[in-house]
Design a protein that fits this description.
The chain is mainly alpha-helical and about 120 residues long. It is built from five helices and two strands; from the N terminus they run ααααββα. α1 runs antiparallel to α4. The chain is elongated.
Length: about 120
């Protein structure tokens, strides 16, 4: 398995963007399909400009993209937006699985521990 190492800046921007619950909720909403800023702002008790700032963070991190459609700029999930983070997490997951496999091998090779009798 070959992994490209994402630049630390890309991973930092991705995980910083994902650290905020509002931004994660926006991404969850966008997983259902494209939406305008007004539609994205509906479930939140915050101003539209505040939602726009969250979207800007997601856009800078490469997680969402906007397009111009007349007077609106619908937002959608970016193709491959989570790829760098996903690859990085896969690499960690593979390392952990390797560690557990080695631990399992060591434990399997150990002789069984003698059972102790209880004193009455």
């Amino acid at each position: 398995m070959c992994y490209m190492i994402a630049s630390p800046d890309v991973l930092d921007a991705t995980f910083a963007a994902l650290a905020d619950p509002t931004r994660r909720a926006i991404l969850t909403r966008l997983a259902r399909g494209e939406a305008t800023v007004m539609e994205l702002a509906e479930p939140f008790a915050m101003s539209q400009p505040a939602i726009s700032r969250h979207i800007k963070v997601l856009e800078t991190a490469g997680l969402v993209v906007r397009r111009v459609e007349g007077a609106t700029r619908p937002v959608r999930l970016a193709d491959n937006g989570l790829r760098a983070a996903d690859r990085w997490l896969d690499k960690l997951r593979a390392a952990l699985e390797g560690n557990y496999a080695r631990l399992d091998a060591v434990l399997a090779a150990m002789p069984p521990e003698p059972t102790r009798r209880r004193r009455n």
